[in-house]
Amino acid sequence: MGLIVYSCPYVPAELIVAYGLTPSRILPESTGLNGPIDVTAGVCPYMRGFVNTACTMSGVTGIILTTVCDQMRHAKDYIEQRTAIPSFLLNVPSTWQIPSVIKLYISELKRLGNFLETMGGKSPATDYLWRVMEEYTKKREKLRALRADLNAMDYSMAIAEFNRTGQIMHALPGRIAEENKVPVALIGGPLTIQDFNLFNLIRHSGGNVVLDGTESGERTMPAPFNGRRSEKDDSLLELASCYFGHIPDAFRRPNSELYKWLKREIDCRGIKGVILVRHIWCDKWHAKVPRLREWLKIPFLDVDIDGESSAIRTAGRIQAFMETVS
Amino acid sequence: MIYAGIDAGSRTVKAILLDGKELRVLASGIADQGIKQADLAESLLKDILKKAGINRKDVGKIIATGYGRNAIDFADTTITEITCHACGVHHWIPQARTVVDIGGQDSKVLRLEPDGGVRDFVMNDRCAAGTGRFLEVVAAKLEVSLNDLGGMAQRAKKASAISSMCVVFAETEIIGLLASGETPENIVAGVQMSITSRITSMAGRNITDPVVFTGGVALIPGMDKALESAINHKIIISPEPQMTGALGAAILAGREGLEHVSIIG
Amino acid sequence: MNLAPKKITLTEWDERFIELQSAGINQPKYGGPLRRYLTDGDLRLEKLKFDNSPASLNLWNFLLTEEDRLHASRKEGRKIIGTMKDLGTVPVMAYSLPNVTAFYPDGAWWTPCVMEMSSGVLAVADSLGIDESFCPVRAMLGAFVTKAHFPDPDLIVCSVGATCDDFSAIAQRLNGLGYPILWWEILHRRKPERNEQSVKLPGGFECPVGQVEFVESELQRVKLAIESLAGMKIDDKRLCTGIKTANKVRQYLRELRQLTFTARFCPLPALELLIAEMLAIHFCSDQQESLDVLSGLLEEIRKRISAGVGFFDPDAVRIFWVNPVADLRVMNLLEDCGGRICGTDYLFCHALDEIPLDIHPMNALARMALADPMVGSTGDRAQRICNDIGLFGSEAVIVSRIPGASHCALEGAIIADEVRSKMRLPVLEIEVPPLADSILPSLNTRLTALVETVKERRKK
Fold first, then answer.
1. Computed from CA positions of residues C305, C271, B77, B15, in that sequence, does the dihedral angle turn out positive or negative?
2. A94 neighbourhood in chain C, CB within 8 Å
3. Cα angle at A190 between C378 and A174, to 5 degrees?
4. Alpha carbons A265 and C432: distance in angstroms, whole number
5. Dist. CA B218–CA B89, nearest whole Å
6. Taking each helix axis from N to C terminus, what angle separates C54-64 and C10-22, rounded to the nearest 10 degrees?
């Protein structure tokens, strides 16, 4: 089955599966220059890492990019100019308050379907997409339940693995007691594989991530789908409601939903501090730093990562932050 | 007729005397840069004239190039170091198509036409991360000489990850790396990799063989191999890499002199 | 009185202004000597070189009195709309109504340069957490907060979607400070797919009809908000009249560019042309006066061309310039290094194209918005640049990066690759900060080297 890779949480894996193809929301492993994007100055290392990883990994049939970020949008130009790999740009609206943008997102999903057909996919029968959605809802229920059984990093890795493969990891590590650790939230943009080390750094400094609000974590899980209740139900509308209508993010305008979500989670999980991790040159998360400082009632730490710095600097910051929170 | 080229670089001043007819270098010299650039260059020119036994009035034309070219008030004209490096490298290696020049405070990548003219260039002179200055900082911090760096890099087991965003911060990182038990050898290899990755990023896809490496950093052992590995192209070190700018200036002085003669004639 | 074209300093303008006054040359109501702006804090003027024509004096006076006009509008009770990240669409609507003044808050990005940082707007942006890793347009945030440069608008409209992240993030920060913003969505322009009806856009682009309909519906939302603010309808007749006036501005600018880029002796320096081009998107808060200023410039240029006079040697290297610079001094520098501007893409070249008049006006505006170079692919933008290079005979291209601007980091390499492969021209990428004084020697080397490279190529 053709492998379709992407990184954006607004791309529904269910649609790709229903077309008979294999979705993979990958985690880039490196932020090197080996690939079509060979510029560094001013370039988000995550975007570069994603594109270069996607273009150099084997077996990729097509790449899906989205408009949620300016640099990802321009990455399409690089893939088109410098590789022969087919790519698709999904227009995810930044505004969300008016019905026309939901319609726009649905029309984009239809267009994505056309792309998947050109990649060897087959337009699904009427209720097949509903069945796939139902399966995914069940899997995500299991995935959400793992939060109680796993340590923070393992839970986040399980989410990332599910996004990558559509499967829940078989061999799950046991939970280590976290009684004396301070509950913190890790929020921000997407993580590379190397960035998962942040969970360890936080743990070693006395913290415990009880909320993974990064783009790679639970924040970007879609809402559970409602099952099909009548012939008139529209599967694409349901996908749109649960993805576009549910996932809060920094690129939304206005971005009030992100703050509502964060407040709710902080209150219900007893979070004592918030750590924002962002890739340098990511303007959307960077601009959140001063707003979060003003808005949050609990300690806040901003961690910028450039994809190549040693962990020493980051470790120092996290240790100092945890000393403050404790 | 004899022509002179002076390359007033950010770290050193270089001067060359050239026999315009045979395109033969008659004398050359190098001196550390200072505040009074014109005086330094004048004194250097006097030295090499003396060394070659040539009278100043026999010098047909002088062209100044480099960062401080406009300060060399006794030069007849100025030409940028981009044009001069291209000309100098083409003189030594006519088949060269790409020139990587890493100097003390700047670095550049030139693409050449088959006749040695510049097709295109990119240049970094705002950040010391991709320049020889980075190596100087590291050598000082590790208390070794620049010449030791090549051997140290070869002995490295694994290149340390060094941020290439800023030399000042990189210096702090080096302190942190040493504190965490990283070997100086691994750090040097990391710094070399950091510099060459800057060059790769700057050059983008515009690298055509043969690639010639010039500038003062080409003299530092091991940098050619690091560059070769980063850009994935074979590297030829230019003969006298520090002098290519001055040589180009002298050759161009000769060309301009000849044009002048033919117009008068 | 010497009327030969010449680039002159501010001090020379002092003398020239007295000469013009003695000669009885009419000044508009905002006219006067340029030195008064220096006294008010526009320190950069002392380091610039200006065209010496009365028409250019009017242009500068018009530009530098915009703040006064906005404050006067407020006093007169006119409604003021800040149209952000909008390169020439919403102002056309706004100026269709008699009691509305639209302005372009993003234009504050020149303030740090013109005032040589003395305005403190960047320091305010820094204090709000929007530091220099963002595009210099962050100056706008400081301008809103200090209220020293324009009055608070009655309505702020901002396009979002296929725009740049910097601006979107900065505007959101402004929103977070309590400024309500009407966000409207602009789509990423794409080519029609099979079974999609195609629509031709200005500038030679095309997109599916669905995209035009969506953007039109978004502009309808903006229109309703403007109507509600102004207390009167923007009916089709008014809008068509507004479009015709905007088209007249665009027509003048197209002619100005064509004449300037193709004349043997350059009739207008790069600096004045840059400022004139900007009128296409914001009219400097007075659409009618923009027309008068531009027609005066055109008249001067025509005179110079017919007299065979202008600036620089005819062998000055013909440069195509991509992206505007925050530091105006760099435009002077290019000419000092032996270049002249022969083609520009300051990111709003669609605003120089004629707005179609043979279709419904709102549909026409939607098409204009979708023709914006920023909302399409970089490949599209590069193609338009290549077309213009062919049209104007440019010999080299300078891609000027805006420090911190997220799109510039990626667009430059694609544009450079396309220009190199299609046009076989040398391309130079530079980065120009709001105040480039410390890097002027370095910029000088690069620009001079590019000029040398072109001159060598000419010999072959």
1. negative
2. 160-161, 168, 183, 185
3. 155
4. 43
5. 13
6. 110
Residue spans of alpha helices (H) in B12-130: 37-52, 81-92
Regarding predicted confidence, which is higher, C119 or A69? Answer: A69
Options 2.40.50.1070, 3.50.50.60, 3.30.70.60, 3.30.420.40; which CATH number does B95-238 get?
A: 3.30.420.40
Whether residues A81 and C379 touch (CB distance < 8 A) is answered with yes
Q: Does C50 touch chain A (CB under 8 A)?
A: no
Which tokens hold the place of C256? 């100005």
Rounded Cα–Cα distance for residues C99 and C374 (Å) = 31
Can you give the pTM of this predicted structure? 0.90
Peptide bond into B241 cis (omega under 30): no
Q: Reduced to 3 states, what is the DSSP secondary structure of residue C163?
A: coil
Kindly tell me if the per-residue pLDDT of B264 is higher than 50.
no
ipTM of the assembly? 0.94
Answer yes or no: do B67 and C456 touch at CB < 8 A: no
- Contacting chains of A (3 CB pairs or more, <8 Å) are B, C
**Residue C166 to residue A283, Cβ atoms within 8 A:** yes
Chain A hits for B130, CB-CB cut-off 8 Å, are none
**Domains along chain C?**
75-237 (3.40.50.11890), 240-458 (3.40.50.11900)
Residue B164 has pLDDT above 60, yes or no: no
Torsion of CA A180, A181, A182, A186, to 10 degrees: -160
- Find the CB nearest C185 among A75, A76, A93: A93
Among the partner residues C129, C168, C413, nearest to A253 by beta-carbon distance: C168
Q: Which of B161, B197, B198 shows the shortest C-beta gap to A310?
A: B161
Contacts of A306 in chain B (CB under 8 A): 163, 165
**String of DSSP letters for C47-112:** G--EE-SHHHHHHHHHHHTHHHHHHHHHHHT-EEEEEET-SSSHHHHHTTSTTEEEE-GGGGGGHH
Q: What's phi and psi for C339, nearest 5 deg?
A: -110, 165
The C-alpha of B139 sits at a distance from chain A's nearest C-alpha, in angstroms, of: 20
- Domain B1-93+240-265 superfamily per CATH: ATPase, nucleotide binding domain (3.30.420.40)
- Contact yes or no for A172/A154 (Cβ under 8 A): yes
- Higher pLDDT: A213 or B190? It is A213
Of C165, C184, C408, which is closest to A284 when you measure between CB atoms? C165
Nearest chain C alpha carbon to A259: C176
Q: Tens digit of pLDDT for each residue in C412-456?
A: 999 999 999 999 999 999 999 988 888 888 899 999 999 999 999
- Does the pLDDT value for residue B162 go beyond 80? no
Give the span between the Cα atoms of A304 and C288, in whole angstroms: 48
Q: How far is CA A234 from the centre of its chain?
A: 25
Topology of domain A177-325 in CATH is Rossmann fold (3.40.50)
From CA B241, how far away is CA B218, in angstroms rounded?
A: 6
Q: Are B104 and B131 in contact (CB under 8 A)?
A: yes
Amino acid found at B2: I
Collect all residues of chain B within an 8 Å Cβ-Cβ radius of residue A312: 173, 176-177, 180
Per-residue pLDDT in tens (0 to 9) along chain A, 326 residues: 799 999 999 999 999 999 999 999 999 876 667 788 877 778 888 999 999 999 999 999 999 999 999 999 999 999 999 999 999 999 999 999 899 999 999 999 999 999 999 999 999 997 999 999 999 999 999 999 998 888 888 999 999 999 999 999 876 777 676 778 999 999 999 999 888 989 999 999 999 999 999 999 999 999 999 988 888 889 999 999 999 999 999 999 999 999 999 999 999 999 999 999 999 889 999 999 999 999 999 999 999 887 665 566 788 789 889 988 87
* pLDDT band at residue B262 using 50, 70 and 90 as cut-offs: very low
